[in-house]
Amino acid sequence: MIVTVTLNPAIDISYRVNNFKINKGHRVENGNKTAGGKGLNVSRVLKQLGEHPHCLGFLGGSNGKWIKRQLEIEGLEGSFTQIKEETRTCLAFIDEENSTQTELMEKCPTVSEEEKEEFLETYQQQFKKATLIIASGSLPSWLDSSFYKDMSKLAKEQNIPFILDTSGEPLKLGIEGNPFLIKPNQEELTQFAGKELKTMEDMVEVAIRICNQGVQNVLLSLGEGGAILVRKDVILKANIPSIPVVNPVGSGDSMIAGMAYSINNNLVLEECLRMACACGMANAMEEKTGFVQSQMIKQLLKEINITSID
Ligand code: ATP
Predict the structure, then answer these.
(1) Ligand 1 pocket mutation, candidates 164, 165, 255, criterion most atoms within 8 A of CB
(2) Which of 144, 150, 253, 310 is catalytic?
(3) Cβ 1 vs Cβ 129: under 8 Å
(4) Active site residue 150
(5) What are the backbone dihedrals phi and psi of residue 159, each rounded to the nearest 5 degrees, phi first?
(6) Most exposed residue of 35, 47, 182, 246, measured as fewest CB within 10 angstroms of its CB?
């Protein structure tokens, strides 16, 4: 069973507002309301690939209840930790005429010490069944930046591969927990390195450094540029064809789902990378975030070329 962790979920509501203007009222159609969070996107794609992921995270208040119900409707199972504060709402105003997107993100709810302990208990209960754990996204406030590091260490003690997709300080510290795989994009890797990474060689050099620190795999995603998978013994590059992009948001999450699915089904490394890219690309070709079509994945798998870098 693959376990996904979304510590900072949100209700995402997006409105289409042409000619969005500050200081003006706008009449709009009903917003598109979804249960948001990177780990939830990963879970959705895993389900479409035929897996039965189990979702963990914090949920609170009526927003939390709504997300729980929504996930049930989508057929996603989970064991969420109840918190006293309300799960946040994030609003997006999409102005197609001017190609702008304005977002309002509520601050994260506070997680108390007891709620944190309760989550860690639920987390460790999953170890009996978990074959792979994926932790994605930001941390709610009041949780220490080393929280992912601690989670990774606990998983490692049980020999369960831990995949971490986050950024900033939680990523920096998370690396010290020796996760099985991290998936930075170019911006996140640059932020980690603390300097501009101009060439592919620069990026690979940083990824190798991370591997030497004890991370087994660094999956560097490069958007339309494909991806590079770095481990101590091998470096693979995925060269991808150009595709008609509709909405690339959530492609990183879909890529993680493709990778996790492949690892869980014992595919060889080259095929894992191919599948990861195909899922990211298939998501980018859809309007809906965290949605892939199996027919499209099959087609894309044939068009992705994997080469080895010396
Ligand atoms: P997000 O944060 O939106 O989930 P990300 O920045 O983590 O995304 P990306 O590097 O943008 O991740 O995308 C992950 C993978 O999805 C890429 O490696 C690629 O395979 C595919 N992909 C994303 N955007 C495009 C695109 N414009 N064209 C082709 N493939 C894409």
Answers:
(1) 255
(2) 253
(3) yes
(4) no
(5) 55, 35
(6) 246
Q: Is residue 14 part of a domain?
A: no
- How many folded domains does the chain comprise? 1
What domain range includes position 163? 2-8+37-87+110-308
Report the pocket of ligand 1 as residue ranges, CB < 6 Å: 185, 221-224, 226-227, 240, 243, 245, 248-253, 255, 277, 280-281, 284
d(CA 115, CA 98) in angstroms, rounded, equals: 43
Q: What is the pLDDT along the chain (310 residues), one digit of tens a residue?
A: 999 999 999 999 999 999 999 999 999 999 999 999 999 999 999 999 999 999 999 999 999 999 999 999 999 999 999 999 999 999 999 998 998 989 999 999 999 999 999 999 999 999 999 999 999 999 987 899 999 999 999 999 999 999 999 999 999 999 999 999 999 999 999 999 999 999 999 999 999 999 999 999 999 999 999 999 999 999 999 999 999 999 899 999 999 999 999 999 999 999 999 999 999 999 999 989 999 999 999 999 999 999 999 8
Q: Name the pTM for this structure.
A: 0.95
Asked, for residue 17, whether it belongs to a domain, the answer is: no
Q: Give me 81's structure tokens.
A: 């930790």
Whether 45 maps to a domain, the answer reads yes
> How remote is the CA of residue 153 from the centroid of ligand 1, in Å?
28
Q: Which amino acid is at 304?
A: I
- Position 26 in a domain: no
Whether complex ipTM tops 0.90: yes
- The CATH number given to whatever domain includes residue 178 is 3.40.1190.20
278 CB-near residues (< 8 Å, 6+ apart): 258, 297, 300, 301, 304
